[in-house]
Amino acid sequence: MKTPLAIALLLALAAPSFADTGVGNGDWASARLEGAMSAYHTGDYRTARRGFQRLAEHGSAIAETMLGVMYAKGHGVRASPAVAAGWFRRAASRGYGPAQIALSDAFARGHGVSRDIDDAYFWALAATTGGDRSAEAPGRIRVKALGESLSPETRAEIDEEVHNWRPRAQRQR
């Protein structure tokens, strides 16, 4: 499997709005995200990190994912797979598909978390069912590959867990 970081970055850039990220003021959030993304792409990681951090404090799953990307790649921060996985988990638990893909890959490889194929399968499957179309195809690829190493019983149990799982509520201001 390819690294989720490039995928997460591309999908974060393609995200249409902050309506589903928990950030109350869309204009403020959109402007901050645009500025942070611009800074990230020009290599001004300090500015990017500050922008993403501020958005993450307001519940933005996109910003949380981008902070995970920064920690995974060591862009403007000391590389830390564990910190990256923590940011991916926060965004994934909100139902953000690109973060679910990144977290699935972290579990599949044991990057920043214990290697756990069951958890990797769970997050990949969640990415296919959460309604985030940008994550559905990469999720299906991972579900197929990971599912081959799981028993039919285990797959059925995880399928049921995903079916009953709901993203955690956004932080209310």
From TrEMBL:
It comes from the Bacteria. Residues 154-164 have a biased composition (Basic and acidic residues). Residues 1-19 form the signal peptide. Residues 152-173 are annotated as: Disordered. It holds the Pfam family Sel1. SMART domains: SEL1. Keywords: Signal. This is Tetratricopeptide repeat protein. It comes from Sphingosinicella xenopeptidilytica. The lineage of its organism: Bacteria, Pseudomonadati, Pseudomonadota, Alphaproteobacteria, Sphingomonadales.
